[in-house]
Each structure stands twice: as C-alpha cells, then as structure tokens.
Design brief:
Blueprint lengths: L1 H31 L9 E4 L2 E5 L36 H17 L23 E3 H5 L2 H8 L3 H11 L1 E2 L5 E4 H10 L2
Antiparallel strand pairs: 1-2, 3-5, 4-5
C-alpha cells in the first residue's frame, strides 16, 4: 500500500503547486504585459472611464442604440446565459415581451424584421457588439428622438462598422452611442 499512496500524495501536491500556484502566476505575468495590464480595455470620455470595450452595457433610452439583452444583468462577475431552452414557456414569454417592447419604441419596424440578437441574450450575457443590421433597424427611432436626419445616423453607423471573426459586420454599441453623442 505504501508503494501506491505516497506517490499519489506526492503527485497531488505537485499538481496543486503547479496548477494552483505557478500556472495562475504565469497567466497573470502574461496579462500584465498586455497593453491594458490585464485590466481590460476601458473606454473614456472627458478623462472619465465610461465602460469597457469588450463588455456589453444596458441602453434603454430611445435616443441611444440598444444592445443585446443580458441574462445576467450585464454583470461581468457573473457572466453566463440563461438555462432556459428555446421551447421553455417562460423563455418564450420573455422573448415576446422584448419583441413587444422593441415594437412599441420602433413603430416603423415589423416583427419579422427584428434581428434575433435584439431580443435574445447571448451565452455570456455581455456581448458589446450588435450586427450592422441590428444598428440600422434602430436609425429611425434615433433620428426622430434626436431630431437628426436618418441618413446622418446611417453614415455614423457605417463609420463605426468593423468585421467580426466570421465576417459579419458588427458595431460596438458603447462606442456607437458615444459617437452619437458627439455628432453635431
């Protein structure tokens, strides 16, 4: 029995030191070499941090673009999605409520035109980006509430456009809303 127990205990202690001590310290050292020192890319306005570039935020006012809903209330410490499946009645009711809310605030949009990302939460609950289509469908509401020409809002969206990994045109909602506030 001694032949098996002591090597197992030694291996356990070595794994604890390596995986709970050395590995996290190595990852921390690599993060500290990154441009933001492992703290995430902050977005500042007038020398004040207003958010993080890679973290979604809640925008619900009509004069701002709305982002993707979050199942965790945009809490980065508790990142995660909902455990309700697409056939769950509570989930379907929640999605229908989001559709109804969107339609009330965007009366010119038809239900079938709403991109699914505007009414369903992501797996992380923190997506900072929406598709170009999701931004463009909100232009009429933004233009009306801000008393700006719709074409000007569409031009602004195009200036904020970036390509995602899978080739879909995306827009960062926080940066788009900041650019919207700076629009003359």
């Amino acid at each position: 029995m001694k032949h098996h127990i002591f090597p197992a205990i030694r291996l356990t202690l070595i794994c604890i030191v390596v995986f709970m001590g050395l590995y996290p310290l190595l990852i921390l050292a690599i993060a500290k070499l990154a441009p933001a020192k492992g703290e995430g890319e902050t977005v500042t306005l007038n020398n004040k941090t207003v958010g993080y570039k890679l973290e979604g935020q809640s925008f619900t006012k009509d004069n701002y673009f709305w982002g993707r809903p979050s199942a965790v209330g945009y809490n980065a410490a508790g990142s995660g999605g909902s455990n309700k499946g697409p056939s769950n009645p509570d989930y379907l009711k929640d999605v229908q409520n989001k559709i109804d809310t969107f339609l009330v605030h965007n009366p010119s949009v038809k239900k079938e035109q709403i991109p699914s990302e505007l009414v369903t939460a992501s797996g992380s609950g923190l997506d900072p980006d929406i598709s170009l289509q999701a931004a463009l469908i909100q232009t009429e509401r933004i233009a009306k509430t801000r008393n700006i020409k719709k074409e000007k809002v569409e031009e602004l969206i195009q200036t904020q456009k970036k390509q995602s990994i899978n080739g879909i045109a995306m827009v960062n909602v926080l940066q788009l809303n900041m650019a919207l506030d700076n629009l003359k």
